[in-house]
Design a protein that fits this description.
With about 375 residues, this protein is of the alpha/beta class. The protein contains 16 helices and twelve strands. The strands form two sheets. It has a six-stranded parallel sheet, sandwiched between helices. It starts with a helix and ends with a helix.
C-alpha cells in the first residue's frame, strides 16, 4: 500500500463504522471524475431507475465540484452531492468531514462503474459508505495500484467486468448495466439538453451570426495541439468571414495568448473569463468547435454541435475516438497513428513536459481546416 493509504486509513475506518440511524434508501452512484467522463456516463444513468426499480429522485450522483454548476440542468430529476476531488485526495480533515456527510446519505446500494479511477477516491468512498449492496466494475489496475484495488474490490458485493482495455467508456457503461440486469442495453450517442442563448461576453464583441470556437487548452500540456497551429486555423476562418472565439479555463494558456495575440486581433479571447455554464452557452451557439481531447470537446459533441477533436494515442479508443455505433456524423476525430500508441501518456519522445506529445503535434493544420470546412458545408446543406 502507498503511504497515503496508511495516512488516511485511521480516519476512513472511523467513517466506515460511524453509526447512522436513518433507514437505508436509494442508490448512490459514484462519479468522481472529470466533465468529459460525466458526459459519457450521462445517458446510461437514465437506465438505473428501471434497473433497480426506484424513482430517479431516489438516485444520488456523487460527483466532482468541477461540474457542480451545470448539474441542475444535466441531472434535473436526480439528487446530486459534490466533493472537491483535489481536497479529498490530499486533506485529511476535509476527507473526514466529507466522508461523514457522504456516509449520512445511507443508500441501500452504491455503484462505481468507472474504469480509469483512483482507489483512494472512488473505491474508498464505496467502502466508507458501507451500503448493504455495493456493485463495482473492475478498473484498470497497474502494479502500483494493485494492492489498494485488490483490498477494496474484495469488499464489494458484486464485481462487473466491463471489457478489456481499450473498450470505449460509453460501451463500458452499457456493458455494466447489461450485466447487472441480465438483459442487453444498447449504447446511445452522448446527448445533453441545453437551452440555446447567446453569451453576453461574446455578444458584446460584434459577433457575426456564424462563429468558430477553438479550445486549445487541456489539463495535460502534452495533449495540447500547438497554440501556433490553432492561431493558423483561426486566421484561415477569419479570412472566410467567420468570427473566432478562443475558450479555456483560468489556468490554460492565459499568458501564452496575451503574448501571441496582438491588441487589435479580431480573435475573441475569453480564456479564463467564463464559468462552465457560460462555456456551454458559447459552445451551444457555435457553427463549429475545434478542440483538444478534453472536457469541452465531449460537451460540444453532446450538445450536437459540429466538432473536430484533435487526439493523441495515450489510451486511444478508451475515450476518443468514439466507436462507430455512437459516433455522430457531425464529429470528426483527427489523429496520426504511431507505433507508440497506448503509452498511457508516459511519453519519452518530447523534450520537456510543456511540449505537445508528438502524436498530437503531428496532426496537420491542413487536416483540421479540411475537417472543419467539411462539417460546416454539411451544416449548410442540412
Amino acid at each position: 500500500m502507498r503511504r497515503r493509504w496508511w495516512l488516511f486509513r485511521f480516519f476512513d475506518l472511523i467513517i466506515k463504522f460511524w453509526p447512522i440511524f436513518r433507514p437505508k434508501r436509494g442508490v448512490v452512484v459514484i462519479r468522481m471524475d472529470g466533465i468529459g467522463d460525466m458526459v459519457l456516463f450521462r445517458n446510461a444513468l437514465d437506465q438505473y431507475a428501471q434497473l433497480f426499480s426506484i424513482e430517479r429522485g431516489d438516485i444520488t450522483v456523487l460527483g466532482c465540484e468541477s461540474w457542480r454548476t451545470i448539474s441542475t440542468k444535466i441531472f434535473p430529476e436526480y439528487k446530486c452531492f459534490f466533493i472537491d476531488e483535489h481536497a479529498f485526495a490530499r486533506n485529511v480533515l476535509y476527507r473526514f468531514w466529507m466522508g461523514i456527510k457522504v456516509k449520512k446519505l445511507s443508500p441501500k446500494i452504491t455503484i462505481c462503474d468507472s474504469y480509469f479511477r483512483r482507489a483512494l477516491m472512488s473505491d474508498s468512498l464505496l467502502w466508507m459508505i458501507d451500503a448493504p449492496r455495493s456493485i463495482s466494475s473492475i478498473p484498470f489496475i497497474n502494479e502500483k495500484t494493485r494492492p489498494e484495488f485488490n483490498y477494496y474490490l474484495s469488499q464489494n458485493s458484486q464485481l462487473i467486468d466491463t471489457g478489456p482495455y481499450p473498450t470505449h467508456e460509453v460501451l463500458r457503461h452499457y456493458n455494466f448495466i447489461s450485466q447487472v440486469s441480465g438483459k442487453v442495453f444498447r449504447p446511445t450517442i452522448p446527448k445533453i439538453k441545453w437551452i440555446k442563448k447567446s453569451h453576453p461576453i461574446v455578444a458584446t464583441k460584434a459577433l457575426k451570426p456564424q462563429y468558430i470556437v477553438l479550445n486549445p487548452g487541456s489539463n495535460e500540456y502534452g495533449r495540447r495541439w500547438p497554440l501556433d497551429f490553432y492561431l493558423d486555423v483561426a486566421n484561415k476562418f477569419i479570412s472566410k468571414d467567420y468570427t473566432v472565439v478562443i475558450v479555456g479555463g483560468k489556468d490554460e494558456l492565459v499568458d501564452d495568448l496575451k503574448t501571441s495575440l496582438k491588441p487589435d486581433s479580431p480573435i475573441i479571447n475569453v480564456v479564463g473569463l467564463t464559468s462552465i455554464p457560460e462555456l456551454m452557452d458559447i459552445l451551444n451557439m457555435a457553427s463549429c468547435v475545434i478542440s483538444n481531447d478534453t472536457g469541452p470537446a465531449h460537451l460540444s459533441i453532446a450538445l450536437s454541435v459540429p466538432t473536430v477533436v484533435i487526439i493523441g494515442g495515450g489510451h486511444f479508443g478508451s475515450f476518443v475516438p468514439y466507436p462507430d455505433e455512437i459516433c455522430p456524423p457531425f464529429v470528426k476525430f483527427l489523429f496520426d497513428k504511431m507505433a507508440c500508441y497506448h503509452c498511457f501518456w508516459l511519453c519519452d519522445k518530447r523534450q520537456n513536459k510543456f511540449n505537445s506529445f508528438p502524436c498530437v503535434s503531428s496532426v496537420s493544420v491542413a487536416s483540421v481546416i479540411d475537417a472543419a470546412e467539411s462539417l460546416l458545408k454539411r451544416e449548410d446543406l442540412g
